[in-house]
TrEMBL record:
It comes from Cuscuta campestris. It is an enzyme of class 3 (hydrolase). This is Probable 6-phosphogluconolactonase. Keywords: Hydrolase. CDD domains: 6PGL (cd01400). Its EC number is 3.1.1.31.
């Protein structure tokens, strides 16, 4: 159970004693969103990032969720991906396959990964084309205030520098408004070639969850969540502000240790 829920400033920030308790609640949160989406639309379109997020989703592959979740209705996407072979250790696809996809009965054709045999630019163009086709067929909803896809859930981690997906502080991709999927060949964190959802797509989702653990990210969490005032660096994580959707932060105590409202 979370130690805290909605803050006095209205932000939903869930803080847990440890990563295991966070993981338990995260699985329940995803399961409930899946059930609601399948009931409403007949499908659940979820986009993932990589890193420790995948291991924190691990309880979905265990009882009861491995049996109760309607896996056949899931469509899985990646909010960002490293442009490497799918068998490469840096691949978010491989990380997700090993940690989740190989353990639950998701329909293989519902797993939408990038083309790993082309350039980052071409991979981003092809991935956006796939998403546009699935918007047309209503596998993915469309935002009613823009032409962006409206994913049922986008799950993000956050780096110590405040980056989410492959949206890094100060990078030109942060300003991209036209494309749904963009690319980098100069990522400040290796590997350099990546594709990423743009901010308009992230902020068009019905639900966005940012999942962060460890004290090494506590300062970035503080800068992203607390209202620090003028002069505060505008981290990409702070720019995650769904226009009509719901944003929830899942933090362990270490990651939340510098937040004004919860620090001790």
């Amino acid at each position: 159970m979370a130690l805290y829920g909605t803050r006095t400033d209205g932000k939903e920030v869930k803080i847990y004693e440890n990563a295991d308790e966070l993981s338990t609640d995260l699985a329940e949160y995803i399961s409930e969103l899946s059930e609601a989406s399948v009931m409403e639309r007949g499908v659940f379109a979820i986009a993932l990032s990589g890193g420790s997020l995948i291991s924190l989703m691990g309880k979905l592959a265990e009882a009861p969720y491995n049996k109760t979740v309607d896996w056949a209705k899931w469509h899985i996407f990646w909010a960002d991906e490293r442009v490497v072979a799918k068998s490469h250790a840096d691949s978010n696809y491989k990380l997700t396959k090993d940690g989740l996809l190989s353990k639950v009965p998701i329909v293989p054709s519902h797993i939408h990964s990038i083309n790993d045999t082309v350039s980052a630019e071409k991979a981003s163009e092809e991935y956006e084309f796939v998403i546009r086709q699935l918007v047309r067929t209503r596998v993915i909803s469309v935002s009613d205030i823009s032409d962006c896809p409206k994913f049922d859930l986008i799950l993000l981690g956050m780096g110590p520098d405040g980056h989410v997906a492959s949206l890094f502080p100060g990078h030109p991709v942060l300003a991209q408004k036209e494309e749904w999927v963009s690319f980098l060949t100069d990522s400040p964190k290796p590997p350099p070639e990546r594709i990423t959802f743009t901010l308009p797509v992230v902020n068009s989702a019905s639900n966005v969850a940012v999942v962060v653990t460890s004290s090494g990210k506590a300062e970035a969490v503080r800068l992203a969540i607390d209202d620090i005032g003028p002069g505060c660096p505008l981290l990409p994580a702070k720019m995650v502000q769904p226009s009509k959707g719901k944003l929830v932060w899942f933090l362990d105590k270490a990651a939340a240790s510098k937040l004004d409202e919860y620090s001790t």
